[in-house]
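re: the backbone from monday

yeah here it is again, tokenized this time
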């Protein structure tokens, strides 16, 4: 069997599940810490620990949950809340489209839908860097660690978060960004294209916060626009060959 055929072959077995769990431990711990701040927001909005737990379990998106919680606190209508959450989570449509290319054509629709339901920035970054086609069980392993970390962290944030000093809560919020950097830096060190894309992304994101007219746009619109432009340019200038997946 050629190297290309081996890369295209989707591995099986629960070994992939256990590997996914192991790789996602830092993400689960980071989610648990960061979601404390989200729990405090939910408590201030009048939500109970159980409500906070299930909101985070069923909506794995920090920006979307913050936006939804703010709308709940403001007693907004269902339609207004849905539109706000849709705008905050719009980037996941782009991420899911790109992530779908990491799976073999034999990967069923049920697997794709379940994975799409729990597609987060950090799990996307960890999954996209895997060599070859991604085994669904590997992603399920990551989900089994990340989802409880996010949900239980939110619940405990509702219960105990308001007792913590503001400085500690702020420090916990930074932990997720540090964890995300730990995911993208290793491949950026060994791949020149990835390194350049990351640096360009940092630079243009900063410029969009200071350029008149652009900085007035919502963060979600800026993020989607930059993602489309930078990713399209990188794909056009440096296409990935099938044998390099």
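seq for it, each position gets an aa:
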């Amino acid at each position: 069997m050629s190297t290309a055929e081996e890369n295209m072959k989707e591995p099986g077995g629960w070994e992939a599940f256990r590997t996914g769990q192991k790789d996602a431990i830092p993400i689960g711990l980071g989610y648990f810490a960061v979601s404390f701040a989200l729990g405090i927001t939910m408590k201030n909005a009048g939500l109970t620990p159980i409500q906070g737990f299930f909101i985070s379990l069923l909506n794995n998106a920090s920006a979307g949950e913050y936006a939804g919680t703010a709308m709940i606190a403001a007693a907004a209508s269902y339609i207004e809340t849905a539109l706000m959450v849709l705008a905050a989570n719009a980037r996941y449509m782009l991420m899911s489209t790109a992530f779908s290319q990491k799976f073999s054509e034999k990967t069923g629709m049920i697997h794709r839908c379940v994975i799409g339901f729990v597609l987060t920035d950090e799990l996307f970054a960890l999954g996209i860097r895997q060599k070859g086609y991604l085994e669904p069980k590997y992603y399920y392993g990551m989900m089994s660690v990340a989802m409880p970390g996010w949900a239980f962290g939110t619940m405990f944030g509702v219960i105990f978060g308001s007792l913590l000093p503001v400085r500690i809560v702020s420090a916990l919020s930074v932990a997720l960004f540090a964890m995300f950097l730990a995911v993208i830096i290793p491949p950026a060190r060994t791949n020149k294209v990835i390194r350049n894309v990351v640096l360009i992304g940092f630079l243009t994101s900063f410029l969009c916060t200071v350029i008149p007219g652009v900085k007035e746009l919502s963060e979600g619109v800026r993020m989607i626009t930059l993602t489309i432009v930078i990713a399209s340019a990188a794909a056009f200038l440096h296409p990935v060959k099938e044998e390099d997946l």
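The two ends are 16 Å apart (CA to CA). The first helix runs from residue 3 to 8.
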